[in-house]
Amino acid sequence: MRKILILCLSFLLIIIRGNLFSQTSCLLSEKICNSILNEYSGERTLDLIREIAKYNRIDGSPGYHKSALLLKEKLEEIGLDKINIEEFISDGTNKYFSLRSRYGWDAKKGELWIVDPETGQQKVKLADFSEVNTSLANYSISVDTVTEVVDIGNGLDDEDYQNKDIKGKIVLTSSPPYLIQEKAVGEYGAKGIISYWTDPNRTHLPTLINWLDTNNNWTENRTFGFILSFENGLKLKKLLQEKKKLKVHAVVNADLIYSKLENLTAIIPGTRYPDEELLLIAHLCHYKPGANDNASGSASLFEIASTIKELVRKRIIPPPQRTIRFMWVPENYGTVAHLSAHPDFSKKTIACINMDMVGENLKKCDSIFRIFRTPDSIPTYLNDLVVNLTRYIDTRIIRSPTGGYYYFNYRVMPAIYGSDHYWINDGGIGVPAVSLVHWPDNFYHTHQDTPDKCDPVELKRVGFIALGSIIFLANINPQQTIALTEEVAAQGIKRISESSRKGIQALSRIDSDNLDRLFYLVQNKINFTIDREKNAVLSTKIFIKNEDYRNYIDNIARRVESTGNNIKTNTVKYYEFLCSRFGKEPRVRALTETEKEADRIIPKRTKLFLSALWKNYLKEANIPEEDFKTVDDFVSSMKDANMKIYEIMNFIDGKRTLLEIRDRVSTE
Q: Cβ distance 585 to 634 under 8 Å?
């Protein structure tokens, strides 16, 4: 009996051990996952962050150039191909699409001292650029002056300047310099600005010195600015209240220069499909130290490249069939310049992952890792691939010699603007781009964004997600494509169900008078979710040449659509039930005359343009100032205006009517 029991247990254990459903749902094999985690080093990445963080990397500055050369030399050492620093004029005049370039900035010195009002002798140092780079506002101009300081509060309203002698003096403000420059310098004649602005969410960290701009790129009323911590700003404010006169000595040696944007690029060439490119991008620019923002992304790109080369050398993975391109750019400006110079970008580039602030120590920074999806106008497999690998790494215990000991914490987020992925997702380009970001961050854009706030464990986690996604796509075969497609389909059906659930909840809170209107919106939301998820499934066909496999993917898309329509009937039934409870007949909401007119208009793109630059195009069109102001004021009153206008422009494809575009964007 005992032997029989042992045999039965052994048999059951063999079955369980071999059960396919007990294996990980990761799209990459366990062998490849383990190999990446063994090879990829968060420690090496942190070492490179420390090197990059030594430079003040403002666009078009000597520090940026030196950091680009540092990475170029390292790329040459590991043997990447076509390593190149592509240059674009950055002179405050030249435009890429309709985005005007900024000046370069060469800052050598910036000191601010309280001086004896009678003798001018320096007494207390308030700021020193050589000690803390963020203590001098970006694009400040040279000056050597001894003058009084005048407190103007936030300096945004004329009342802040009443009965104050401002001309030729330096103003103290709680606002960022660029917000008050036109009024303080242009209208009231201030000579310079001292700001102690801080993020309202970070007043519990009063010693941070924020990284802030002057408005010198966009105005003729140029000036200089010094940045104090919130704590020291309040001390100076109190000192001004106690003394009738307080003088400072401001010395700045800095020049706005005609310079160049520098984009560092390199590739690992594809062996089978060299003209199909997968892009990894990170912005190299920003203040010193700028460790998490964005030395972390820049260093991670290098470690990804190095790891791929090593995995290929060890024959753990085959050489990539598709080209993998790496780009280090000045944020936004470098990307737009690249897109302007390479009109074939959309045809060649299959997908993009943006690495921006990817190394945060979650505890020190009070941060969360976030995956920002593509906008609804770009339905794609890429979102679910990246999330699949993120879910996998969340199941793994990751350790590193100097890394932290805490659980992974991540969120999947809707699309957002603000970095290089934004331009690549743009309707004028149309390449799916996911952004990997940590947010919030206690030390974002401050002098305390130092390498000690980075964590090798987190760098390894995020590096795995990006590297794993790129490796998977570089060598994806038809069977893996079907597996990816089924993953997209399964997650898409969940999102359709979630839209239905939220719709039913919303209907449960509505009164009889507004029921029909809300039902119209709920149906729109579900319809567009079904359409988005169906097209996300179809997006995997880009990897398939075989007609049988392409037909199979079509069948999966039809299944998603059919399942979605079945789910949608739940909201229809609930709407009909509510109508019966309210004693009214279900009816289709009639379109207004304005909506009928909108349904007859099909806008078209007359040329290649970037949706995100819509305001610049309006200015260039020389429309009447009053009309421009009307549009601008209306947009400014909208919630999430940037993304809404962006998506309105993105959905213009020569097929959709204005009404359909309105309905789509209103559901996002």
A: no
